[in-house]
Amino acid sequence: MIKVENLYKDFGPTIKVLKDCNFTFEDGKTYAIVGSSGGGKSTLIRCLNCLEQPTSGSVYLDDIKVNEPKTDLNKIREKMGMVFQNFNLFSHMNVKKNIMYALVKVKKMNKEEAEKKALALLEQVGMSHRVDSYPHKLSGGEKQRVAIARALAMDPEVLLCDEPTSALDPEMTTEVLKVLKNLSHTGLTMIVVTHEMNFAREVADYILYMDGGEIIECSTPQEFFAEAKTQRARQFVSNML
Length: 241
Prior knowledge:
This protein has 9 helices and 10 strands. The chain starts with a strand and ends with a helix.
């Protein structure tokens, strides 16, 4: 369970990105965070594992305060896998070694165990045919699928995805969303910032709508698309569909 209490994030004295956000993400559920650009979606998800340090307020993972100075963030980030917009693969390592690296360095697996797990994960995301390729030889969709496999390698409790398809063309977007759809409802908690409304409608258990740095509402997809609770959300839906 991830709990957010009274969360604020400012960038300097005048740029207030998050404003008193309060929410509890339940175990095993899939959440789509939607809203117009600049609404605070990516900042919120990056505050969950302190890639952005909150200005004030609290983030808890299973009752451990994440943004407490004495908290071991490396341990927290093992439990919260992160998939970025721009992949962040190691360019000097092939696909298999990109997955193996943290397994050997962080999990302390021997190379044989790490290789076996890496190959299984690459099979899961449809990338077993590219194990020896380097990132510069991959399409954007292939890079993102490798990045998802790398995040899963640590056996996280939560998978955070920050607009995982924003850098991809429509065909590659479909590839990546299919992988995320297959991961949903497997016991993994997934929190996905996305502009893909069909994904949000079909895959998410709940949709969080953000605007102006606030969480405006949380609804099931059926409720959100049929009859959003607020005027701002209704306007957003009419613009997107």
